[in-house]
Amino acid sequence: MTSTQMAQKSEQLRDNALQDSIAILDFGSQYSQLIARRIRETNTYSELFPYHITAQELKRLNPKGIILSGGPNSVYDQHAPKADPEIWKLGIPMLGVCYGMQLMAAELGGTVEQSTVREYGRATLTIVHHGSLFAGLESTMESWMSHGDSVSKLPDGFSTIGRTMDCPQAAIADEERRFYGVQFHPEVVHSRGGQAIITNFVKNICGASGSWTMDKFIDEAIADVRAKAGDKRVLLALSGGVDSSTLAFLLHKAIGDNLVCMFIDQGFMRKNEPEWLVETFERDFKIHVHFIKARDRFLDKLKGVIDPEDKRKAIGAEFIRVFEEESNKLGPFDYLAQGTLYPDVIESSGTNIDPKTGERVAVKIKSHHNVGGLPKDLQFKLIEPFAKLFKDEVRRVAAELDVPEGIRVRHPFPGPGLAIRVLGEVTKERLKILREADWIIREEIKSHGLYRQVWQAFGVLLPTKSTGVMGDQRTYQNQIVIRAITSEDGMTADWARLPYDLLETISRRIVNEVAGINRVVYDVTTKPPATIEWE
Ligand code: XMP
Fold it and tell me: How far, in Å, from the CA of 366 to the mean position of ligand 1?
C-alpha cells in the first residue's frame, strides 16, 4: 500500500468507529468524562464534544446516539450554554442528563423551574413506566441527584417515566422521537442500575453494535501510525510507566526498528527499576532501548533545592536539556511519540459559561505536571495513539499486546520520581534510604496480595529526625511515612485500610533493615484535602 492509501484506510477506520459511536455534548459537568467511560464499558466508542458542536458536524460524524451532559448552569441563565437548535431535528436518539435533560425540555417547549427542594446525593427513583430506557430494571432504584432546577412542564410528546420524592419529573421520555431525559446521574457509581440504563440507551435504543474492542483499537492504531510515519523513524522517551511502555509495544508492532526508544535515567526511579525495565525490553521483547545515564547531572541541579516547585522545575528543565542533547545525537527524527491520554486532551474550554458575563471559563482539569513534558517548540510531529483512551483502556491494550504484568499492573509513578518523596534536599544518601524503605513497603504489600487493590503505595522520607532507642543506644534518626491509597482515577483518594499486621511487618522490617531510620508512620489523610504525593 502507498502511504496515501494507508492514510485513506486510517481515515476510513476512524470514520467507521465514529459511526458506531455515541457523541457526548459536554455542558461542563464534572461527570462528563465518566459518561464516556461508562459507554465504553458497553464496547461502544464514545467521544466528548464541546456543547456548541454544530448539527451539521454531528450529521457528518453520524453517531448512533447523542448524550447531553450535565452542567453547572441553569437553562434560564442569560448566557446558558445551548446546543445548536438544529440537533433536535437530526433524528438521532438523545439522552439528556441533569442539565442536558432540562435543556432538552426547555428547548422543546417545556418549562424548567427552580425546585423548591434542591436535591443533592442519593434519592430513590420510582419507575412509573419502564419503556425502553428502563427495560429490565426493578421498579425502584437508588439514584444520584445533584440539581437545583427541575422540569415542571413536559414538552409535547413527552411523558414521565420516573420520579423521586422531591422531583416529580425525574425521568422523561418521548419514545417516538427516541428522546429521553434523566434528572439523576446514571454514570455515577452510586446510581445503582445506572450502567443498565446506559446500556439500554446505547445498545437497545441507539442500536450500537458494541463491537469496539481493544483488539480493534489496536488494529486501527497500528494502521494509523503506519500511515502517519511511513518509513520515517519515531522517537519515544520511555518513562517506565504503563502508558509509554505500552506505547513502545504498539509502535514496535507497527513500525519495527524504526521505533527508537530512549530512557533517561534521572536517578529517581525505585530500586532495580531502570535495570529491570531495560532488560525486559531488550532481552524479552527485542526492543532496543538507548539507556542514558544522567544521574549525576540531575543530582547536581538539586543541590540546595528544597521548595517542591523549584525541585520539579529543576528536574523538568534538566530533562529537556538531556532529551534535546540525546535526541540530536540519535536523530534527526521527524516524529515524537507520546503516551498522552484522553483526560489530558479533552477540550475543556468552552464547556463552562459564566452565567453573568457569558464568558467561557476553562474548566480546570488535572494539570499533568509531568516532568517528561516537552516544550512546544521542538521540531517534531507528534504521534499520540492513546489520546482517545482512558487509563484503564491502556491497561487493556497492554494486556492484548502481552505487555509483561510487571509493567501492566504497576502503580502510577510521578515523573520526578523519588525526588519528590525525599522531602527537603535530595542527596544520594537520602535517595538510597528511601529506595530501600520503599522496596520493603511494596514487597510486603505484594506478598500480602494487596498490590492490585491499592492505587498507589510508597514511602516518603521526612526532612525531620526523631529520637528512638535501639539496644541500649539512644538514636536520633530519620522517619519514613507509609502512603497507601485507594482511588478510581487519582483525582480523589482515600487512605488504604491496610491490615495492622502488615503495617507491623513493614515497620519492623524497615527499622531493622534500613540503616538511618528509627520511626515509621502511616499517613491517614484523604485527597482532598491532602494530595497523594507529599510534594
Ligand atoms: P497528587 O499528588 O497531585 O497526585 O494527588 C495525583 C497523581 O498524579 C501523580 N503525579 C504525577 N504524575 N508527573 C506525573 O506523571 C508528576 O509530576 C506527578 N506528580 C504527581 C501522583 O503520583 C498521583 O498518582
Answer: 10
